[in-house]
Amino acid sequence: MTKIAVSILSTTDNLTKVIKKIDKTDADYLHIDIMDGKFVSSKSFAFSQIAKETKHTSKKLDVHLMVQNPSKEIANYALLNVEYITIHYEIGEQIITLIDKIKSYGVKCGISINPATDVQKIIPLLPKIDLVLVMSVHPGLGGQTFLANAIDKIRLLKEQIIKNDYKTVISVDGGINQEIAHVCQEAGADIIVAGTFIVTSNDFQSQITKLRS
Ligand code: DX5
Ligand code: ZN
User: Fold this and answer.
1) CA-proximal residue: ligand 1, atom 6 (nearest)
2) How many CB atoms lie within 10 A of CB 55?
3) Which ligand 1 atom sits closest to the C-alpha of 194?
């Protein structure tokens, strides 16, 4: 079954309250978007805030680092109840060392690609990583419109993963609603990241159930 990761980025409500509400659903992960004001122009949460707030949930964290120099953040987030730490392909050649750093903590490693990045670039990395995160919006902001070129990327990645018998899972992030989730699943996505569609509603569970159907 497709897994659901709930992004808390777009919430305007009290964070503790929202995290407690997510904890009561059957969502698989809490997706944490970290932005440094360099890799993307906006800034989001501080580590101290996330460390404190995530005490209110037993959900595993899916940490998405939109950060130019993520070394320190990796060391920090590896201490929490984390399943995946994802860094961006676009930060440059340091990713090879950082993949090993993430794994050295016993945490699963993800690499994300921006909408403008050619998917072929990360094919050689697939055997080294646990997750590939296809961005379906330009990173930096919740509530944007889904960019359809993500679908072709998911299809191509799935083809490669099956052909080579890799264990890498495919996640897709940005602008996802019920209809789009369905198309992403058909294309081969294993994890759907959704923020606005879930956290701006009155009934988190029913939105999550819709994304899975
Ligand atoms: C965008 C973030 C996403 C996004 C998801 O930079 O990585 O996780 O906020 O939220 P929605 O579903 O609102 O696009
Ligand atoms: Zn994200």
Assistant:
1) 139
2) 12
3) 12
Q: pTM, whole model, 2 decimals?
A: 0.98
33 given a catalytic annotation: yes
Please give the DSSP secondary-structure letter assigned to residue 140: T
Pick the catalytic residue: 28, 62, 130, 173?
A: 173
Q: Which CATH superfamily is domain 3-212 in?
A: Aldolase class I (3.20.20.70)
* CA 100–ligand 2 middle distance (angstroms): 21
Quick one: average pLDDT of 45-59?
97
Question: Does residue 213 have a pLDDT over 90?
Answer: no
Q: Which of 186, 157, 183, 151 is nearest to 170 (CA)?
A: 157
How far, in Å, from the CA of 10 to the mean position of ligand 2?
A: 11
pLDDT single digits (tens) 119-146: 999 999 999 999 999 999 999 999 999 9
Q: Is the pLDDT of residue 174 over 90?
A: yes
The pLDDT value recorded for residue 29 is 98
CA–centroid distance, residue 86 to ligand 2 (Å): 9
For 169, the token pair is 């899972």
Confidence tier at 106 by pLDDT (50, 70, 90)? very high
The catalytically annotated residue of 28, 33, 62, 190 is 33
Contact between 28 and 52 under an 8 Å Cβ cutoff? The reply is: no
Residues in the chain: 213
**CA pair distance 144, 83, nearest whole angstrom:** 26
- Ligand 1 atom with the shortest distance to the CA of 31: 8
What would the two tokens of residue 133 be? 């995160």
173 is catalytic: yes
